[in-house]
Design a protein that fits this description.
Distance between the termini: 85 Å
Shape: elongated
Helix content: 25-40%
Bound molecules: zinc ion
Number of helices: 4
Strand content: 5-15%
Order of helices and strands: HHHEEEEEH
Largest sheet: 3 strands, mixed
Length: about 260
């Protein structure tokens, strides 16, 4: 082995530099692939939620569950969603009206992207100070479907059969364009007065007040206010929604169960 020799320092540095360049090229692509996998897992979760939507309607004469207490009895309070001691599989006595259907699918309640983002960004409602952020539930229901959002709607726009609430699937004018379950951020989006996920019902208003859809899918960690959410719709399909377009009407119209154009108030 006359010619055998080690690498020179220069050769070693060149090899390391090449590896570093390749990593720089490949890593963003790899991260996109991983987010795409999480995004698809989230969609699969919501497809199971559409099965629950169907079962609930079949059992309850086409009615929606109340959007305030579909998950927790008496409504979720601010931090139930990330409180391990409120896990409904362990504490079914705390469960709301949809749990008897949802419990058949124990692994669908936390979107994998939300799980990462929520732990990293903590909870706006409690700042992570008292209850550790261990996401238990991440999906929220349209509060205009049998919900308290109607208390914010002027009388002339209310859609009523009995009282002010819209309670039945058959009352929704555009079932393929009205979301049922979707996602919320844990933080405030700059420029909006959204509260962050708290009571597992989602009630955006045209005035940009209160809740907004999640913005954490398919986006770099540095731009988390401008990504996408997944949503199930009243007709049972699942679709990506452009959650941050609160400048226009698009986001608001996803909530509004009446005819287009959705009213401004
Ligand atoms: Zn909290
Ligand atoms: Zn998701």
């Amino acid at each position: 082995m006359k010619n055998a020799r080690g690498f020179t320092l220069i050769e070693l540095l060149v090899v390391i530099a090449i590896i570093a360049i390749l990593m720089g090229i490949l890593m963003p692509g790899l991260q996109k692939v991983r987010e795409q996998a999480r995004f698809m897992a989230c969609r699969a979760n919501l497809r199971n939620y559409t099965v629950v939507q169907r079962m609930y309607a079949d059992d309850w004469d086409g009615n929606f569950p109340r959007s305030f207490d579909w998950l927790f009895k008496g409504g979720g309070t601010n931090c139930n969603w990330h409180d391990e001691s409120k896990n409904l599989a362990l504490h079914p006595e705390l469960a709301g009206s949809c749990w008897s259907y949802l419990k058949s699918y124990p692994k669908i309640h936390v979107c994998p992207t939300f799980n990462i983002v929520a732990k990293a960004r903590s909870c706006y409602m409690c700042g992570g100070a008292t209850i550790p952020v261990v996401p238990q539930y991440g999906y929220t229901m349209n509060s205009y479907l049998n919900g308290d959002a109607w208390s914010s709607v002027p009388a002339q726009y209310q859609i009523s059969i009995s009282g002010n609430n819209l309670r039945k699937e058959s009352q929704v004018k555009r079932p393929a364009e009205t979301f049922y379950f979707s996602e919320e951020n844990t933080w405030r989006i700059s420029g909006l007065n959204n509260a962050g996920i708290n009571d597992t019902n989602l009630r955006p208003l045209p005035s940009k007040m209160t809740d907004s859809f999640g913005t954490f899918h398919k986006v770099a960690a540095s731009n988390m206010d401008h990504g996408y959410a997944n949503a199930s719709f009243v007709d049972g399909h699942v679709e990506q929604v452009n959650a941050w377009d609160n400048e226009g009407l698009e986001t608001w119209e996803l909530c509004w169960p009446g005819d287009k154009p959705a009213p401004i108030f």
